[in-house]
Each structure stands twice: as structure tokens, then as C-alpha cells.
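Try it yourself: sequence plus flavin mononucleotide, in.
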Amino acid sequence: MTNSSSRFEAFAPGAAVILLLAGAAGAVAAGMPVVALALIAAAAVGAAVGLALALRLSAAVGRAIEVARALGKGDFEVRGLVFDQRGRAGELAEAINDMADRIDAFVREASAAMEAVRLNRYYRRILPNGMEGALLRASTTINQATDVIQGRVEAFEASTAEFGATINSIVASLVDASRDMGDAATRLGQGASSTDQRASDAASSSSMASTDVQRVAHAATQLTGSARDVGREIERSATIARDAVARAEETKRIVAGLSEAAEKIGAVIGLIEQVAGQTNLLALNATIEAARAGEAGRGFAVVAQEVKALASQTAAATGEITQHISEVQTATRAAVGSIVGIGGTIAEINAITADMRGSIEAQISATTEIAQGVSNASEGTRQVSDRISGITGIARETSALAQSLFSTSGALSTEGDRLSVTVQEFLVGLRRGPLDRRQSSERVPGGHAVAIASAKGSAKATCVDISLTGGRFAGQLPPLKIGDDIRIAVEKGVDVPATVRWIRDDNVGVEFKLAEMTSAASDRLRKLVSKGKALATAA
Amino acid sequence: MKPRVQPTSEEVTFLPDEIIVSKTDLKGRITYANATFSRICGYSRAELMNAPHSIIRHPDMPRCVFKLLWDQLGEEREIFAYVKNMARNGAFYWVFAHITPSFDNDGKVTGYHSSRRVPDRRVVREVIEPLYKELLRTEAAHASSKDGLVASFAQLMNIVKSKAASYDELIFSL
Ligand SMILES: Cc1cc2nc3c(=O)[nH]c(=O)nc-3n(C[C@H](O)[C@H](O)[C@H](O)COP(=O)(O)O)c2cc1C
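Structure, out:
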């Protein structure tokens, strides 16, 4: 409907009435009552039409006021529901409805876009189609603001992700390092204990060696002693031998004298034999003479006889002596021979013992050296022993150090893990934002039955209240303590991992482990919470 | 009511600065329709008032899309959807619909509101039409309509999951 036609609609009945009434007045003046009456009737019809139009417009205005007032109060649900009217009234209704529709659409879009931002969803933008003027500008502003927020959040995400990754890699290398350290400590400990073992082995063998060395030293000393004894004995036997040689010489000389004397005796004996022979001859002559002298000679004969007997006796005796002397001479010669032999032997012995003495002396000096060496060795082994016992001490200390290093590395690794978990939680919290946390920890009533399972058993319980982050449950609980990890099953196959935060009577407060939740569990949780919220608002 | 209208290949279009608006009660019965709605679909406002919104349902629309729509509204969440609608004369028109719950002062849902804009033709042609055709085929492949709906809904969710974090995100990325 155009402006001119709607203006026509507003003015036409009134103008027509005025024109008709003016015409009627003219007709009266001209003395044409019939025409005047007809014109008056037409004017009346025009007035009625005008009245009807005015009433319709007034109703439309009334509805427009109603919609406008509702809009003013922020109620976008009211519309003018009398449709398809023609003319100004229809135009007004459509204009008012269209205005309400566009503002309604803008408000819904804007609040949905902002709600999305509140829920950390940045893909949501206000669609500009169908928006004009200030609404379009406001939409653009909100979209630009969302762009900026998204940019910041993405930058923030990127830097927290980077931070998380850095921390994780630090933690990983910490854990690695501590594992390596633990391994090294283990190896060190093993090394130390095997060093200890080996050192004790070495110590015992060195002490054994030391004993052996001492025994050898002792034996060497003894050997030196007996070598000296042998030396002394040899010396003595050499002296004796020398003595014996001297005596043998002496004996030889004596025996030689003896032999000379025997020869001289032999010569005397020969003289005696000559005397005895001559005596015998003389006796014989005397006898012959005596016999010639007969009786006078008889006494002489007897003496001659006796002299003769004596001479023959002497001859016999000297014969005997000669016999003996030659025997003596033979014996002496033999004695001299054997004495000469003995002398040679003794001289030989003497030479040998002299040689022996030389080698004994060499032996003595050798054994002395050995003894010296051995005693040095003994000192050495003693020092080795000392050092080894030092090593054993150090090895034990190292072992103790390795043990403490090992436990330190264990503690380090645990700390690393804890750091990682803390940082993870910190980052999750950071990403989720404080607002979301406050909203998600809002408690709503529960009422549904659950099964609570812990490592120590499971039991049925009832949910007292619940939020997106935790809940309170009551019932006959399994034996629980604060910090226990449990699973809360709402239905078969859907369970929510949680940690026990507090226990009072038969009530337990738990915090859900959001990071470990399956999507089915988190869906279920969201449904339970929104059901609880509906219940709470109804009550 | 539906079998009376036979779909045709005629397409109706509207302008980018126009919005098709309707409001419904909690059951999806129309409580308000703007002039553009009436003009495009060919039903008078008197006919539209109190009619179920499925009055303009096109048989090419897979049911799982409406299931998703009602699921999200049930969770008091807005939903965007590409919808092929059918005018009184059987002609079709594509819209990009934004449907939101309406709340009273106590925050209780009193009904729903939809404003529809001209969709991106490229998205409809390249993504939505092939997708809906596929979903429709899945729904038709099952003897029981319930099984068909379960299967096509699962298929839709799988496609969403393979492409984006959520349906909403997927729709906005197109
Ligand atoms: C506010 C609102 C707007 C809707 N708009 C449409 C629409 O434009 N086209 C449509 O087919 N269904 C729309 N629906 C969904 C219908 O209510 C209905 O679920 C759908 O047409 C499927 O119908 P059926 O269940 O009879 O197959 C809308 C629902 C609501 C609450």
C-alpha cells in the first residue's frame, strides 16, 4: 500500500462527506430538495464508512500499543495476530510485527552468540542476513568482539598448550633423567657391592698372600740360618781337613823316619849276623881245636859248643828281626802310600769345601736377598691389605650413597609425575575458566540410585545432590577413605570416575574426574544435572 | 494433511534481507507466522495458526534432522539447520533455520521461535543435498521406521564426529 493511497484512505471518507454535505447545502439553496437528500444520504454513508475505518484503525493502534509495550518490557512473544487487514490498519500491524520479529531475531542471535562465548565456543557468529541499520552494526560489533576474543583465546590456548607441552617435556625429561639416575644408582650400587665383594675377596687373598709371604720370609730366614750353619760346618770340616792334611804330612815324615830307622836296624842286624857267623866259625874252630886237644880241650869244647849255640841262636834271632823289619818296612811303605793317598783325598776335599764355601756364601747372600725381598713383599701386601680395606669402606659408602640416590631419583620421578598432573589440572582449569567452573559446580538435587564401586567393594547408594563437577551420595557405602578412587555407575556400562573428597556418617562427597570421563558418561551427567535443575525450578 | 500436496520441482526463493519467522508452542504448533512466511509457503496466516509445523514438511527431509532438532531444543539449546520446505502448491524452498526456545520471566520454556534466512546455495548443493539424500536412503532401507531413524541418526552423528567437534560447529564451518 503506497503512501498516497493510504493518505487517500484516511482522507477520502471525510473529504467525501464534506463535499457531499456542501453539495447538499448547494442543492437546498438551488431549490433541489431531492438532490440535497440524496447527497445527505451519501454523506451519511461516507460518514459511516469513515467511522468504520476509524474504529479499525483504532483497534490496530491498540494492538500496536500492546506489542510495543510488551517489546518495551522485553517480551518478544507478543504479536498482532489479526492478519491480512487491508489499508493502514494492516500496514501498521505488519510493520509492528516486522519490527518485533527483527528485534526478536537480533536479541536471540546476540544472546545465543554471547552464550556460546560464555561456553567457550567461538565458532558461533551472528548471521547478518535480515539485519539492517543499527541492528546490523550491533551484530557486526558483537561478531568483531567475538573474533577478538577468539583470537585471544586461541593465542591463550596456543600458549597454554605450548606451556603444557613444555612442562610435559620438562617433566618427561625429568622423569627420564630420574629414571636414568635411578638406573645409574642401581648400577653404581651393584658396582659398589661387587667392588666391595671383590675388595673383600682381594683383602682375604692378600691377607692369605701376606701370610704366605711371611711364611716364605720365615722359611727364607731359616734357610739363611741353615745355610750359615752349613757354611760353619763346612768351615769346620775344612779346618779339620787342613788339620788332617797336616797330620798326614807329619805321619808321613814320622813313617819315613821309621823306615830309615828300620833300614838302619837292618844294617845293624847285618853286622850282628856277620858277628854271629864269625862267632860260629870261631866256635867251630874252637871245637876242632878242643877236639884235637882231647880231654884238655874238653871243657873248651863245651864252651865252644855253647858259643856256637849262641851264635846260631843270634843268627836265628837276627833272621827273625830282619824278617820283622822288612815286614815293618813293607807296612811303613804301605802306610806312607796310604798317607800320601789320604793327603791327596783330603786336599781334594779341601779344594771341594773351598768351592763349596764359595757357593754357600753365594747361597747365603741369595737367601738373604730373598729374605729381604720377601720382607719387602710382606710390607707391600700389608699395605695392599690396608688399601683394600680402605676400598671396602669406600665401596660401602658408595653403596649407601647409591641407595639414597636411588630413593631420591624415585622421589624425583614421583614429583615429576605430580607436577605433570598438577600442571594438567591447572591447564584444564585455566581453559575451562572460572565462570564455567562456578556454573558447573552449581548443585542440583539428585534422587536417582547409583552403584558405587571402589577397590574394596561396591554398594548401592542414592544421589543426594549433583553438579557437573561432583556430587553427594548416601547409602550403605563400601569402606571408603578420603582420596579413594571410585566409579559411580548410573546405569549398566555408564560409570563416572571420581575421587572421594569427604565422608560424613553414611554420606560421601565426591569430585568427578572430568578428564577421564567417557563421552557417554559426561552426556549422562549433563542430563542428570539438567533434570535436577528442572526439578529445582519446579519446586 | 500431508499426502494431499504432491511435491513438484518448482523452487520458490526469497530475498537475503528477508526473514521467515514463526513461533510455536511446546508441541510445534504454529502460534505466529510473519507475512514473509505466509507469502513464501502460500498458506494464509489463518491456515497456519495452530497448524503443526510439519505442514510445510518436505518428503526429501530425513527424519533424523528433526530428531536432532527436537533433542537440542529439549536440552534448551538453539539449533541451526538447513531445511527443505514445501509450499502449499508442492513447490520447494530451502531455508537456513535458526530455532531457539522462548523463555518466560522465570526461565521456563514457553515455546519455540524460528527465523529462517536464505541459505548459501553452494552449501545446499554441495553438502546438504547429498547428505540428506544419503540419510533418507538409510531411513528407507529399514523395514521399521524406528530402526531407520536410529540408523540414520547414528550415521549423521558419525559424519558430524568425523568432521568437527559438534553438529553446531560443523554447521557453522560450512
Ligand atoms: C520453531 C520450530 C520451527 C520448525 N520449522 C520447521 C520447518 O520449517 N520445516 C519443517 O519441516 N519442520 C519444522 N519444524 C519441525 C516440525 O515441528 C516437525 O518436527 C517436522 O516437520 C517433522 O514432522 P514429522 O515428525 O511429522 O515428520 C519446526 C519445529 C519448531 C519447534
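One thing you can check immediately is this: The interface with chain B takes residues 76-77, 79, 81, 83-84, 94, 97-98, 101-102, 104-105, 108-109, 112, 121, 123-125, 127, 129-130, 132, 526, 530, 537 of chain A (CB under 8 Å).
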